[in-house]
Amino acid sequence: MSLHLFGIQFFHKNLFKLMRVLLILSVCFLSICADAQVNLKAGLNAYYKFSGNLNDSSGAGNHATGRGGIGYTTDRWGKPNSAGNFDGVDDWMFVASNAGITMGSKMTISFQFKTKNKRGQVLISKSDTINNANYKQFQVGINYPSLGDSGLMLSTEHDFDCITTSGTFNNYSFSKSTIDTNWHCAIMVFDSSYKRIYLDGLLVANDTVKTGNMYSIDSCNGGVLKIGSWWQSDPQSFDGQIDEIRIYKRILNTQERDSVCKNVQNPTDEEPQSVANTTLNNIGLYPNPLTGNTLYLDHTGEIKYAIYNIAGQMLQTGKLQANDKAIYVRELATGVYILKAETNEGVWHQRFVKQ
After folding, report:
1. Which of 119, 207, 321, 323 is the most exposed place for a label (fewest CB within 10 A)?
2. 36 three-state secondary structure
């Protein structure tokens, strides 16, 4: 047998093994890269921890001024004096107009909140002044059934004072899920006219600006940032607790969004851990790598799950009961994915490969 023929036969016999080694190495590389993508300080323009004050912890100097006597209470993780307490009457805070809070075409706002009632309320807003609602830019609110829904709302309102064409652009995006009186984590995203709302780690609204050609959330220069209120004659005051408000001039990736909502319970973590970490020990995923079209998720009790690709796009969601372990993934192409599982006890993540 010639050396050339021997080399060809050896290559074909070991090709599958070589491909498996390369696949494993690629998964490891992607895992490292995904972990390295968490940088919650990058692009952070305001960060309010409510640790006994209204100071901005981002380093940008956007400290807020309080009105009405905002109090401080226990946060969702049991730490005292670590969440803002708003009375729903006249408690609110503001940051004066400056370039640091002018968002432009990209914005992410994340926050923890717990409301005391189910009426319409504004949590975060931005407009020209405190005394009127001219030069509207955005509102983050909850429970507005008169507008078609009782869930989370992200409104990018651009009126005729802000744009060159006439008319009023009121563009509402809703979460389509009722907000109860428990603690929740919310993330609002504006990305060049695309709007997304995440509630407790799940994508609950994905929308576009419906009218006009609006690619910037700040069509007007300046604007006052308000927390807990809309404007003087129509405050729509927030009644409840709010905490961990982060405002970015960029879009957070999947790992960063999960980090913000998952790990703020540890007040010593300046940089929450990445999506690769888990908070549950009684869950298992198999087979991995997957060569067929059915994944199995070992778990107890009811569980919600979501599957993401490496780019952070959510591809599939579902719910499993205690005796149901099969997840059918026939529609997924060959590649690397992240499965997120959520129970009443916490959140769990696992990367898997479909061959």
Report:
1. 323
2. helix
Q: Which residues of 82-102 are buried (b: 16+ CB within 10 A; e: fewer)?
A: bbbbbbbeebbbbbebeebbb
Whether the predicted pLDDT of 48 surpasses 90? yes
Bin 173: left if φ > 0, else alpha if -120 < ψ < 50, else beta.
beta
Instruction: In whole angstroms, give the CA distance from residue 295 to residue 29.
Output: 23
Split at pLDDT 50, 70, 90, the class of 192 is confident
321-334 b/e with 16+ CB inside 10 Å = b?
eeeebebebeebee
Instruction: Return the SS3 of 119.
Output: coil
Residue type present at position 156: T
Average pLDDT for 294-299: 88
Cis upstream peptide for 287 (omega within 30°): yes
Tell me what pLDDT residue 270 has: 36
How far is 141 from 123, CA to CA, in rounded Å?
Answer: 5
Residue 71 has pLDDT above 90, yes or no: yes
pLDDT at 13 over 60: no
DSSP letters for 165-213? SSS-EEEEEE-SS---SS-EEEEEEEETTEEEEEETTEEEEEEE--SS-
Q: Nearest CA to 315 among 254, 243, 258?
A: 254
Rounded Cα distance between 61 and 245, Å, is: 15
